[in-house]
Amino acid sequence: MEFLISDSKQHSAFIAYLYNGLAGTLKEGRAELDLGKDRAKCRVFAPGSAAPILYARMTEVIAVGYKYYFLDSSVHVCMPKKERGLLLSSLIAADLETDGGYILPRLESEREFCLDGLFAFRMGALREKWGRIAEYIPETFSARDLKNFSRFLVSESRRTVYLKDSRVFGENFTPLRLSRLTGEESVEREIMLADAGYIKCLGGISGETGEFLQKYYPERVAFS
Questions:
Q1: 221 - beta bridge partners?
Q2: Predicted pLDDT of residue 97
Q3: Which strands make up the sheet holding 198-201, listed edge to edge?
Q4: What span, in angstroms and rounded, lies between the C-alpha atoms of 92 and 103?
Q5: Beta pairing class for 160-164 and 167-169
Q6: How far apart are CA 192 and CA 94, in angstroms?
Q7: What sign does the dihedral 112-115-117-123 (CA atoms) show?
Q8: Which pTM value belongs to this model?
Q9: Using H for helix, E for strand and C for coil, what is the string for 204-215?
């Protein structure tokens, strides 16, 4: 069975993320990447049983990648780049499961996908929801507000992530790489996107990461 996923050249990084994710998880078949002049494409040659993996990766692209860039253009706050990235990541994490539940049924039973077209024509209710979220964030939103908001989300989460050698892992020690979809892969954004409630550090951490954990995850970090 052949699947074709494409996106605009502007979002070629999303297609590369999709390709890399599939290349590491497909048990049968293969994936081909084409970052052409007009559109970026990923062709997948695999049995139908591979479809759930494909749909899951596409759901991540829309629920994280598209949402990050939507919020980045809609949320108007005067914050440093790092704190702004953490704010947008935490907003994504807060609704990631709900957004995924909306997206996934709109992908199933298809074999050819234009991600920009899907977002434009099938995700209208989702865009409206994201727009309302952006409107809730006042321009005066501060670093203190971010800390309080993030700590609230952390207190509600029971998820544990693992930190080793500046890499973040989830259950079964699965590497987490959603931050790539935000345009900047980082430990801090990855932890936020994982909706982590507890952090287990397997080895030493950098001073910058330590400051982040102390600020947003007090009494939620364990070392081994």
A1: 199
A2: 95
A3: 167-169, 160-164, 198-201, 221-223
A4: 14
A5: antiparallel
A6: 9
A7: positive
A8: 0.95
A9: CCCHHHHHHHHH
**DSSP conformation class of 66:** I
Mean pLDDT across 201-213: 93
Name the phi and psi angles at 170, rounded to 5. Answer: -105, -150
Q: Is the model's pLDDT at 109 over the cut of 80?
A: no
Alpha helix positions (H), the chain: 12-25, 51-60, 67-74, 81-94, 96-103, 115-122, 124-136, 143-156, 187-193, 207-216
Token digits for 141? 């939103």
For residue 53 the two structure tokens come to: 């993996």
What is the sign of the dihedral through the CA atoms of 202, 171, 216 and 182? positive
Q: Over the stretch 136-149, which tens digit does the pLDDT of each residue have? A: 999 999 999 999 99
